C-alpha cells in the first residue's frame, strides 16, 4: 500500500472523527454538566440524543448533495456549521440551549460521517475498499481512545465548556486538511445526471434493495450496541462503580483499542476467506459474547472486571463486522455512493437512537440494563443474519431447480 493510500485514510478518518470526537470527549463531563446546569441525568442525556437525531437525519441531505455538487463542497458546509455550533455549546448557560446547539452540531457533523465513506467507494471496491475502510476506522477509532482522556484533562483545567472550545479547534484543523490535502473524487462529468429527482429515485432503489437494507441494519445493530454503552457508561462506571473521570476514560478507551486492532485484520481475512464469510463468523462470535455477558451478569457476577472483559472481547469482533457490512452494502451502488452512504448512516443512527431510548427507559443506575441493551442489539443482528442466510439458500435452491 502506498503513502498516498495511508494519507487518504488518515485525512478521511480525521474528518469522520470530528463529530464523534464531540461525543466521546465530553462523556466524562456528563455528570458535572448536570450539576452545573441543574439538570437531571436523563435530561443531560438528551444533549447526546439530540446530537444523534440530527446526525442521523441530515446524512440524508449530505449524501445527495455530495453526488450533485461533489464531495468537498458539502464537507466545507458541514464542518463550518459544526464549528459555529460548538462555540454556541461552549457559551450555553442552561441545558435547553446546550441541547439546541448540540442538535445544530449534529447537523454539521453528519457531513463528516457520510461523505468519507462515499469517497472510499469512489476510489476502490472489494478487498481494497475494505482495507481503506478499516484504515479509516483505525483513525476514526482513535477518537474513543484519545477523546475521553483529552476530555478529562481539558475538564480538569477548563471545565466542561473547554471541551467545546477544543472541538472547535479540531473542526478548523479539519477544514485546513480538507482544503489542502484532499482532492475531489467526484468529477463534474459524474455529477451531470445527479439531481433532486435522481436522489429520490436512488433512495427508492435502495429502499427496495433487500441486500443493502439487510447489511445496513446488521451494521446498525452492531453500532447500536456500542452507542447504548456510550450513552450509559458514564453514569454506570462513574456513579455506580465509582471510577474517576480519568479512570473512566481509560476503561472506555480499552474497548476502542480492541475494536480498531481487530478491524485491521479485515483486509487479510477478506483475502483469505471472503468478506461475506468474515462478516458472518465475526457476527456470530460478537453476538454470543454479548449474550453470555448478559447471562453471567444476571446470575449475579456483575463486577466491573466481568463487564470489562466481555466488552473487550465482544467489541473486538465488532471491529470486523462494521467495515465488512459497510463495504458489502455499498459494493453495487458506486454511481450513487453518496446517497447510499447517507441512507446507510441515517438507518444506522436511527436504529441506535431507538436502542438508546429503550435502554434509557430501563436504566436504574446499575450495569445490568445497559448490558441487556447491548446484548439484545447483538442477538438481533445475529437473528437478522441467520434469517437472511436461510432466505438466500432457499432462493439459490429454487434457482438451481429451474
Q: Could you give a quick summary of the protein structure above?
A:
The chain is mainly α and 402 residues long. The protein has 18 helices and no strands.
Structure description:
It is a single chain. The chain has 402 residues and is mainly alpha-helical. It folds into two domains: 1-184, Growth Hormone, Chain: A (Up-down Bundle), CATH 1.20.1250; 202-401, Growth Hormone, Chain: A (Up-down Bundle). It has 18 helices and no strands. The longest helix has 34 residues, at 368-401. The relative contact order is 0.15. The model has no long low-confidence stretch (mean pLDDT 83).
Key traits:
mainly alpha; transmembrane; 2 domains; Growth Hormone, Chain: A; membrane; 18 helices; xenobiotic transmembrane transporter activity; 0% strand; 402 residues
How is the main sheet built?
none
Shape, please?
A: globular
Number of E-state strands: 0
CATH topology of the largest domain: Growth Hormone, Chain: A
CATH architecture of the largest domain: Up-down Bundle
Given this structure, which CATH class of the largest domain is correct? Mainly Alpha
Number of helices: 18
Low-confidence stretches: none
Evaluate the radius of gyration: 20 Å
Helix/strand structural class: mainly alpha
Order of helices and strands: HHHHHHHHHHHHHHHHHH
Oligomer: single chain
Distance between the termini: 45 Å
Number of domains: 2
Report strand %: under 5%
Helix content: over 70%
Indicate the mean pLDDT.
83
The CATH homologous superfamily of the largest domain is named: MFS general substrate transporter like domains
Amino acid at each position: 500500500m502506498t503513502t498516498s493510500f495511508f494519507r487518504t485514510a488518515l485525512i478521511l478518518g480525521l474528518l469522520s472523527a470530528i463529530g464523534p470526537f464531540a461525543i466521546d470527549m465530553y462523556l466524562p463531563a456528563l455528570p458535572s454538566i448536570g450539576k452545573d446546569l441543574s439538570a437531571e441525568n436523563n435530561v443531560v442525556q438528551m444533549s447526546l440524543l439530540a446530537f444523534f437525531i440530527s446526525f442521523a437525519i441530515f446524512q440524508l441531505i449530505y449524501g445527495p448533495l455530495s453526488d450533485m455538487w461533489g464531495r468537498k463542497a458539502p464537507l466545507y458546509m458541514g464542518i463550518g456549521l459544526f464549528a459555529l455550533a460548538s462555540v454556541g455549546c461552549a457559551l450555553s448557560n442552561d441545558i435547553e440551549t446546550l441541547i439546541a446547539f448540540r442538535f445544530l452540531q449534529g447537523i454539521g457533523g453528519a457531513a463528516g460521517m457520510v461523505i468519507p465513506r462515499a469517497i472510499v467507494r469512489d476510489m476502490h471496491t472489494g478487498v481494497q475498499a475494505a482495507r481503506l475502510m478499516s484504515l479509516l476506522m483505525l483513525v476514526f477509532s482513535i477518537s474513543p481512545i484519545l477523546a475521553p482522556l483529552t476530555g478529562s484533562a481539558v475538564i480538569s483545567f477548563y471545565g466542561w465548556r473547554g471541551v467545546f472550545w477544543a472541538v472547535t479547534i479540531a473542526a478548523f484543523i479539519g477544514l485546513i486538511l480538507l482544503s489542502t490535502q484532499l482532492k475531489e473524487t467526484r468529477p463534474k462529468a459524474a455529477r451531470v445526471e445527479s439531481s433532486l429527482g435522481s436522489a429520490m429515485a436512488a433512495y427508492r432503489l435502495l429502499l427496495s434493495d433487500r441486500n443493502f437494507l439487510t447489511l445496513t441494519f446488521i451494521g446498525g445493530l452492531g453500532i447500536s450496541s456500542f452507542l447504548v454503552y456510550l450513552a450509559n457508561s458514564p453514569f454506570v462506571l462513574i456513579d455506580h462503580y465509582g471510577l474517576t473521570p480519568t479512570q473512566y476514560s481509560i476503561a472506555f478507551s480499552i474497548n476502542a483499542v480492541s475494536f480498531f486492532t481487530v478491524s485491521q485484520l479485515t483486509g487479510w481475512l477478506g483475502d483469505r476467506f471472503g468478506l461475506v464469510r468474515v462478516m458472518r463468523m465475526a457476527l456470530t462470535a460478537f453476538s454470543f459474547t454479548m449474550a453470555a455477558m448478559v447471562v453471567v451478569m444476571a446470575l449475579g457476577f456483575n463486577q466491573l472486571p466481568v463487564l470489562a472483559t466481555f466488552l473487550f472481547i465482544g467489541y473486538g469482533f465488532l471491529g470486523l463486522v462494521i467495515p465488512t457490512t459497510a463495504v458489502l452494502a455499498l459494493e453495487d451502488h458506486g454511481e450513487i455512493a453518496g446517497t447510499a452512504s447517507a441512507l446507510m448512516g441515517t438507518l444506522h443512527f436511527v436504529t441506535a437512537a431507538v436502542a438508546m431510548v429503550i435502554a434509557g427507559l430501563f436504566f436504574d443506575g446499575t450495569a445490568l440494563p445497559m448490558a441487556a441493551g447491548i446484548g439484545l442489539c447483538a442477538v438481533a443482528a445475529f437473528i437478522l443474519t441467520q434469517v437472511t442466510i436461510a432466505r438466500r439458500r432457499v432462493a439459490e435452491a429454487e434457482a438451481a431447480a429451474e
